[in-house]
Amino acid sequence: MSMETGTGTAHRPQIAKADGSAVRVLVVDDENSLTDLLKMALRYEGWEVRTASDGLGAVRAAREFRPDAIVLDIMLPDIDGLEVLQRVRADGTETPVLFLTAKDSLDDRIAGLTAGGDDYVTKPFSLEEVVARLRGLIRRSTLTLAQAKDPVLRVGDLSLDEDSYEVERDGTPVELTATEFELLRFLMRNPRRVLSKAQILDRVWNYDFGGKESVVELYISYLRKKIDAGRDPMIHTVRGAGYMLKAAG
Q1: Where, per the database record, does this protein carry 4-aspartylphosphate (predicted)?
Q2: What is the mean pLDDT of the chain?
Q3: Which end of the chain has a smaller Cβ tally under 10 Å, C or N?
């Protein structure tokens, strides 16, 4: 693990919640040296940090601490990170989750994302990378101040409110995760424009997946099930080029 907090983070504006209070992050890993390093790096961002060393402790901490984001190791000594996430989600929270995994397997990563996680990093990683991923997740969550002057985007019978994070198709509410919402927002800001997987990765996840663009396909499939299911499709695949959203009909 490299400790690359660097000077780049020192000059970034701090992220705070809409009420001005500090962002809360729960870090879950059974390696104390790792959690200590992450705690230091995240506190440097001005965030409030709590740690847990096992899955059951993580579930308890999530209920008590009510974090705004969770850094969650998949391999834990009691229940694994996927089970932790399922229990946290069962409590009705949509807190963004950044998975840590020692396994460099795309299947494991996709399994985590499918279970409701929002992002992942593979060990070894730099502290700066973790901080950057968390900043991206938190920016996309409903916790930060909305910056749009005109909050409602509309394409055909699809509307997206950037202030309330409400999405509707033909007047019917559509429930999206934070990452799905950001992906749809990017598509709706560029109607009838073909967006490549690389462009989507750069804009929605704010970093390069190292060529593993299948995560884009995964989230496009999620959106299609929620936006297009039983309706005229709005999300289109342009073979060899990318994806495009346009009004149905």
Answers
A1: 73
A2: 81
A3: C
